[in-house]
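I had to read the description of the data format several times before I understood it. Each protein is reduced to its one-letter sequence and a matching series of backbone shape codes. The format is easy to grasp once an entry is in front of the reader. For illustration, here is how one protein appears when written out as sequence plus structure tokens:
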Amino acid sequence: MARLTTRLHRFSPLAAAAWLAAAPAWAQTAPTAPPPASQLDPVTVTARSSPPASVGGWGDTPLAKTPLQASVFSSEQLKDGGVQRLSDLTRIDPAVSDAYNAEGYWDFLTVRGYVLDNRFNFLRDGLPINAETSIPLDNKARIEILKGSSGMQAGTSAPGGLVNYVVKRPLDAPLRSVSFEWGQPGTVTGALDLSQRFGSDQAFGVRLNVAAAHLAPMVRNSEGKRNLFALAADWRLSPETLLEAEIETSHRSQPSQPGFSMLGNSVPPPGDPRLSLNNQPWTLPVVFDATTASLRWQQKLGADWKFITHATTQQLRTDDRLAFPFGCTDTDGTYYANRFCPNGTYDLYDYRSENERRRSDAIDLSLQGKLQTGAIGHTLTAGALQSRVRNRFQGQAYNFVGTGNVDGTLVTPSDPTLSNTNTNRDERSTELYLRDAVAITERLSAWLGLRHTRLQRESAQTDGSQPTAYAQRFTTPSVALSYAFAREQLVYASWGRGVESNVVSNQPRYTNPGEVFTTKSRQAELGLKGASDAFEWNLTWFDIERPRTQDFGSCDADATCTARLDGTQHNRGVEATAAWRQGPWLLRGGAQWLKARVQGSQDAAVDGKQPTNVPARTLKLQAAYDVAALAGLNLQAGLSYESRRMVLPDNSATIPGYARVDAGLRYATRRAGTTTTLRAGIDNLFDKHAWRESPYEFSHVYLYPLAPRTLRLSVQVDL
């Protein structure tokens, strides 16, 4: 598991796809369930209209009418696909791929070729959260993924996109739903979803989600457990006033899965996908405990305006532990710093960082409404977001304990000695933002966004030594023009900036500890969108450039490493998606062609090369069929393709592309007022063996195998 820096301070043209759901259209353009009735301004979603995506920043405006690309995955889609974690969505969307996703650990995503930052690229109901934890999906109404620069939507964030989790809220109609799911070889999950309104005029509403699971995945030595309790409530004080509150608390305990690696100078055949190298007698689980709560007040101010106050708090506690393979020393004395030895052995470390505590608090005040200036209409949002982050850690163990091998047969002793310090971090930020959707004519619109951020960050080692602190201010603009050239047909052009702010670690190996690097990424995008009763499509060209920060020097002793800016990563690509529904058939899919290159690097070995772990071509196709002979039966199939990935920064080693096919069905029947839904699926139907991804993290090669053929079954009863 490559968590070394957080720990030390921190597959051939055809592939296999995801699942399919019959009722909804494809993720990007699919209609989802209507928004909860507790919202002040409900939106009616027709069979042709795309859903809104709040992550885009334009409120209830349907995706088909906004100058951006985003995917919306409803809770029903997640159930049909057997999606248990965020990284499972990489099976569906062509712009989304894996980025170091291991069993038992938190999720990473790559969007448009850039890895999202778990600290800054994740939202919950539109407010920032820390995603360095396991986030349950049982109480999430939908997941939204914005594609592209996010400077308008977030103060500091990596380019590529944002992820927004939308929490389930009380419904108008009563809901009584219970479900059970089994996944091969022995994962069992039970969940309860209840919603009820009561009181005078049904003014009060509650939504309860409870889930518990015994985790027994295909990866051996990874058994664990998880549970969730989530409660959401609202109070309609009047037709103009709505108060919403919710809280969720979750626990997950499960050993995590280290990655395989190169063997000397060769990329080995795919390893056993059931084997975990974290199988020492002293192996302990990674434990995630999380509590998140929020309070939101919405007040209508006349027919066209409303004021919203929204606050959230998140408290995380983590025990991060692993038998960690990293590098090796061969029998002839050769040291391989970034891979395993040719004979399959590696150096093994006892890593433990317990009682990690992360707290994030945020409050957002916004005013939203419409006004007219002459013949020009404005849809305005103005607001202020204040957030605070406080991360506290203990001393950590990272101790060499002996030699392991890729067969997982060597046993070493443990050494939990707290031999290293960690880094405590504090952050405060205030963000002022303004967005204006300007209707210049009936067909032509301008979309203007501006966010100004004031940032203050501090850090110090857990023993109090080597403190760093800095403060910054910066502004991130966004502008777009769109033109509706025909009914339900849109063309747009957009440009925007994003900002990342990082400080060089205060570890003694750096010659410039505390130096601050503020990098500004930029994105240009051109898009076409269209829709009819049976067909929806999107075609997008994007160009994103991001400065790179790299380490220079041997970096193997004190004062031997210097961090500095070193060229850019330049990603240009085309994404096409479509969905077509005719009679009993639903076809949907998408493809992305990506040219990602390192440019302007001082290192000739990587300059002009393709970044590691980024496929240049992806294809995700799905089909579903309603069986007329048996009402309620829907058959599903999927095909996906990912091209080869680079293993080393100099592109001298690669893993081939791979093909994957999935199949499934859903059968729903209603008797005596009770709806029963049976779902079954086989992921990786033909049991394809391949390396799924090749993350190059912490200057080390990692290889993760594609999961083997896996059967899943579930039953859901709605009373």
Notes: The chain has one domain: 175-718. The radius of gyration is 25 Å. The longest helix spans residues 75-80. The first strand starts at residue 69 and ends at 74.
